[in-house]
Every structure is written in C-alpha cells, then in structure tokens.
UniProtKB/TrEMBL annotation:
It is found in: Cell membrane. Keywords: Membrane, Transmembrane, Transmembrane helix. It comes from Aeromicrobium marinum DSM 15272. It is a multi-pass membrane protein. This is Transporter, major facilitator family protein.
Amino acid sequence: MAPLLVSVLVLFTAQQLLIPLLVPLSRELDLTETQLGAVLAVGALVFTVVGPVWGRLIDAWGVRATLLVGLSLSTAGLAGFAVVSAVGLDGSNTPTTTWLLLLVTRSLLFGAGVGAVPVAAIAAAGATTGDEGARTRAVGLVGAAQGASMVLGPAAGGLLAAVSLVLPLVIAPVVCAALIVWVLVAIPSLPRVADTEPGPREPGPRPWEPRFARLLVIGFFLYVSLAMVQIVIGFLVADRLGLEQEEAASSIGAVLVAIGVVLVVVQAGVVPRLRWPAMRLIRVGAPIGAAGLLLLSVADSFVTIIGALVVVAAGLGLAMPGFTAAPTLLVGPRQQGAVAGMITATAGTTFIIGPLLGTALYQAAPAVPVLVGAAACGMASVLAQAPYRRQAARR
C-alpha cells in the first residue's frame, strides 16, 4: 500500500497546486464562471467514464503498468494546460479558443489519467485487508493522502501564484513527470490485486444491484456537496471579502490548506482510532458536514469562512471513508478492482454535476449552492439510518 499512498499524495498534490489559481486565472483569461465549471465538469465526466476501465486494467495489467499509463496521460494533460494558459494570458488566443483547448488538455487528457491512481489504491486496500476495521482504516489512509495533498498543493500553489499565475502551471507537470520516474525506479513490480484469490472469475458487480445501490446514492450525495463547495469557494472568498485576483489566490490557498489539515487529521488519526463500522462513520459525519455548510452559507469574514469549512471537512472526513469502505466489504478480492472503479465513478459523477450546478446556482445567489450541499449531506444522513446488512462476499 505504501507506494500507492505516495503516488496518490504526489499526483493529487500536483493537481491541487492549481486549485488556488483557477478562479483568478479564469478571470485573467476572460472565461465565464460557467466555462470554468464546464472545464471541471468535462474532466469529471472523463474521470467517471474511465474509472471502471482502470479497475479492469488493474486486474489485467497489474498496478505498475496501469499507474504508468495513467501518470503519462496526467503529465501530458497538465503540460498542455500550462501551455494553453500561457498562450491565452499573452492574448495570442481568443477566450473561446483558450477554453476549447483547456477542455482537451485539462479535461480530456488529465481527466482520463488521474483516475488510475485512486482506483489502484482503493482496489489494493480492499484486496489486502480482511475485517471491516482494517478495511476502513486502509481506505481512510487513501483519503488522508488526498487530504494531505489539499494541504501541500494549495499552500505551495498559493505561494507560487503570489509570484506569478503561470508558475504553478509549470511546476505541476514537472511533479507528475518526477512521479513517473519514481514509479519506474522504485516500484519494479506490483502484483495484480485479483491474484490474491485463485479460482475462476465471477461476473463483475453492477451498481444497480440492491447491495450496492443505496451505498452509491449515499456516496453521491456526500460527494456532490463537496463538489459544489469546491467550485464556488473561490468565488465566495473573492466576492465576500472583496479581494483582487492575486490576493484571492493566496486566500483561497489558505482556506484549502485548512480543509486539508482537518481531512488528514480525521482520516489518518481519528477514523483509525474510533474503529467504527463504515455506516456509523456516515451516520455521524454527514450531519456534521450539513451543519458546517449551513454555517458557511452565512459566513461573511475570513475567520468564519474557515471555521465553517473546518466543520464541513470534519464531517466529510468521517463520512467519506465509511462510504468508500462499505461497498468493498460486499465482495471478495477478485472483484475489488471493479468495485473500486464503481466507487470512483460515483465520485466522478458528482464532479460532473457539482461544478455546473454550483456555478449556475452561484450566479443566482451565492448562498444557494452551499444550502443545496447542506441538503445533500442531510439526504445522505437520512439514507444511512436504514439498517445495513453486510452480505457475505462471494469467493
């Protein structure tokens, strides 16, 4: 698991480097809020479509080969994103041309490649752990690695953006390229997760099966609340605090660092010590997330915005490992790749809907997407109250 956790941390740190500058960069490029939302939404669509494909490829090719393909696509996408942005900033392309090229680089190439790493990590966590507590702790560490990237990436991105909006764009693909070299040198071979269980392969799980359907709907509500907040928080900070573009980038970076610290502490520290069943994590975490979003809807200062988001991160930091672990407990090692793809596809679906819905609702009224996110967390909490019966994994 350790090499996969490092890969998750490094790749998502490279991605998060760019988060603080997306809003100011889009405004410098004369893109509308909806165009920015579309770039992220199309990337999420690609991520969603290829998630199950990565799961099958992990079983067929092994983890190392799949990682290298995914990282190569990610590096190409981020490098293209940097070039397109730099050309757009000097006025060589029209805003429409820039937007279309961003769809190709940031959305298609990077969106396809980035999904390989979390699918591999979740599949490995499912295949190498047995009891529910160990499974929840393992997927919690995957989430903690992503949370740590939300500390490192925005912190570095905010500092770099204060120097130049272009600098993080250059650093991100360099980090990805370095990760490819590390995987080639330091990870000579990783087994297929399906090799942990001999015997003939059974038909893969389907999301509409009753044993998965409710869990995936719960996960959808949790992640769509996060997706909407992530896309509007930059606008919220800039507009409520009346900040200029580069000031906004630094402030957004600080906000995302605070969220990331809480996610790391909760998922790497609190969840393993609690040793709660997966559904209990959801039942406790979702209402906390909803409460934080309600606070965010009325927050009007930097301190209150960060405070509200800390509550949101604490709640989702509990609930999301519960969602990620629960479906993996229903299958044996041979089906972990397919289930991991299904989980990441569910999350990816929300990042199609979330950015478009969030930006559209924000244009109507800034508090609306935050309130809708609170309602989504509330729905997840309600659905999680029904009895949960673990079915024996077929072996």
